[in-house]
Amino acid sequence: VCLTCCSRDVMVKIDQICHKNSVKFFTGDVFGYHGYMFADLGEHEFVEEKTKVAKVSPGVEDGPDTKKAKLDSSETTMVKKRVVFCPLKEALAVDWSGEKAKAALKRTAPDYFLLQ
């Protein structure tokens, strides 16, 4: 489900219905130079391709690069990952007075508060 130009109450209500029924939910809007986008994908599983890191044995090469690990692009492994997205209501109800939230405050764009 994709929503735009809706009130906050409508977005929260529809996201709750989607989250309960395992339906992916996207919402967003733009206000001049400022905008937002939110995605609730519920439980999202995916496979990520990882390149194996080959260690260089000491004494084979000279210079500062000998201590650095080199990527071997011919060897890769597939890693299954799972991410659980939070509902919109939970994302909007962050308590910014806690210690954990204070650390996240530095990484939060000022536009978040403008759109609130």
Automatic annotation (TrEMBL):
SUPFAM superfamilies assigned to the protein according to its UniProt record, in alphabetical order: Activating enzymes of the ubiquitin-like proteins (SSF69572)
Lineage: superkingdom: Eukaryota
InterPro entries linked to this entry: Ubiquitin-activating_enz
GO MF term set: ubiquitin-like modifier activating enzyme activity
Annotated protein name in UniProt: SAE1 enzyme
Source organism of the structure: Mesembrinibis cayennensis
